[in-house]
Amino acid sequence: MSQTTTATTAEFQLAEGETAAPAEGHAAEGTTAGTEAHGGEHGGGVFPPLDTATYPSQLFWLIIFFAALYLLMSKFALPRLGKILDTRKARIDGDLARAQSLKEDTENAVKAYEKALADARAKANDIARDTRDAVNKDVDAESHKLDASLGQKIQAAEAKIAASKAKALAAVEDIAAESAAEIVAALGGGKVTKAAIAKALKG
What we know:
This protein is an all-alpha fold. The protein has one domain. Helix content is 90%, strand content 0%. It contains three helices and no strands. The chain has helices at residues 2-43, 55-186, 194-202. α2 crosses α3 (194-202). It is rod-shaped and about 190 Å long.
């Protein structure tokens, strides 16, 4: 009885060992195959952007991207940028036009100032010349008046001098006649009149 039980147990263990061995073999094969598969994906594959198999999809998305970028730029960015550039150009043109206008106004003001200054100088010269001529005329007139007045005064003075001279000469003749009469009388020549002595002096 015990021998039969022992034989049955040995057979069961043998059969269980045979069943476990193929299972372990299959598991080992599966592990090796998985490792090889993962190793092939990570180590021996091509970089995706350089993979020729993905070129069509890359080109498709590239075209889609650039088309969207073009639409975005043409509909939003470029008009806005163009508007900014136009506004800036208009502002610059306006500033340049205003600067040119101010420059022309300044040049006109300078020309007007120079013309006014030249006119003022010419007018001042005319006024100075007229004033000088008027002063010269006044001086000449005053000189003529002074000369005439002095001439009249000189003539009056000469007349007075002549009258005084004549009067003095007459007085001298009277004095001489008297003196001569007195001298003749003193010398014993008798009494002689002034008239006779004056006639004798004149003769």
